[in-house]
Amino acid sequence: MTPPTGLKLTQVNLDTPDPAALARFYRRLLGWEIEVEQPDDVILRNADGGVGLSFQRERAYVRPTWPAEPGRQQMSMHLEIGVEDLSAAVDHALACGATLADYQPQDDVRVCLDPDGHPFCLWLID
């Protein structure tokens, strides 16, 4: 099925209790600039023109659990971030404020958690 013309994925939204703080984390992690900053919504633009990230205030935010556990808040999505040097990327993510998840399902991928607990994967680009 061919989609209607004009459809383009422009950004991914992450819920957070503090949009400005989470946007600053991803700004340091990715090196992107803040394009819009409002009290309940902050948008980072990809310098390469790709999909951006938006951080929207969720007053009832519940930190997700990784890996999933019955009866606990589960992640609904995660970001995949390709890297050329996995060890250096993990060190950078940790310096930015991420934590390394206890559970690591693959040798060539590292699951990290942002300050609000959203999982993101650093994976080796071939």
TrEMBL record:
It comes from the Bacteria. InterPro entries: Glyas_Bleomycin-R_OHBP_Dase, Glyoxalase_6, VOC_core. PROSITE patterns: VOC. Pfam families: Glyoxalase_6. PANTHER family: CONSERVED PROTEIN (PTHR35908:SF1), HYPOTHETICAL FUSION PROTEIN (PTHR35908). This is Glyoxalase.
